[in-house]
Amino acid sequence: MSVVDICMNSICEQRRKQMLYTVPPMRYTPLSPYVQFPQYTQKQFDMRRKAEILQYSAAKSNTKTNNFTKSQKWSQLIRGISQARSYTTVYQRNQTTDICDNIIDVPYTYEDTSGNTYRRTFDELYTKINATADCSMNDLIPTPTSSSGIPGPIEYLVRDVKVPLYNYASNTDNYSILQSENTDMWSVYTTNDMSFLSNSQMKFMTLVIREKVDQYSYTCSLNVPISIYVEGKTTTSTPLSFSDLSLNINSVSLRVVYNNSDVTLQKSPVFQINNIVIPSMNNTATADPTSAYLNYDVSMNSYAYSYSIQKYVGVLSISNIYLFTEPGYIYDFYLTFNMRESYTNKLSYVSSFNTTKSGIICNSSYANQLISRNVKNISSNNNIPKLTNFTFSGL
Question: 128 with 223, same domain?
């Protein structure tokens, strides 16, 4: 029986990363009515809730306090509270139009075709209007708290249904026991517009394997939109001009790390730039000078002191990355770009510019497809696909 000896530092490091990239459970966060309805005050919200509670509605109350007792029903009967009330009947005079289209009251008499005069009946002259009581505003009539049996200083209650009902137990749910279901097999953490200096290794992304992963291993692929950038600075205040400067990707290296240790990939990754496979060995690919390049001229006026350019040149694809995908595994992906710079062979350029930095922008965004200053005659490779977002997949 073999014994696996795992360093305690490695276990702690893996636990630290798992806590760093943990997915928090769902949290119920209700909207504050004071933010959602700023036109109402706290007193109005409290008044609305009090008026609702004092109705003792059967659907909301735990007891049957809304059902009248025998003595209460007798009291209503003798006081006539539940009896129908009569109102004054109103008769409205009917109207018609004359030969000039003027509105007039219906005449009391009329003549037939033979010239005989007749008197109109009462129903022809008047229309009966049944008066009804408008109770739509009854809720807005102030009612003292003493009428509801509330002790203490008297306060007038108003039930304004326009005010939202807040903090009232109309539908109680146990939000604290709800579980969020995360169906993702893995999570990828990276950022846009990551700057990689030439010959500088930097972490590009982190891959976290989740509980829902359904295979013990996956062959992964990633597509990264890239831009070439260069920036030169000088202390010379005189105008400067240089033509036929070029910059291209010389090589790309991939490094996968698990728990601060390099992962030995069981398959050789396949590198492509703009769908053209570039040869690789030991996780490093050597690019053709025409696969992704940038040509430009520098034209600086007096006291310019610097120039810069950033241009989208295509998509870097790395596939055939074989990884074990047990739940809880966390991998870090590192990239290294080596640039071929023609201006280093121009002595006049080297003597004029104190520093020149070049490299690659990974996950290039739409806003930064082309940015230049004191540069003209910009050109690059022709087989540039449409700019898309970073993608990661596994098979």
Answer: no
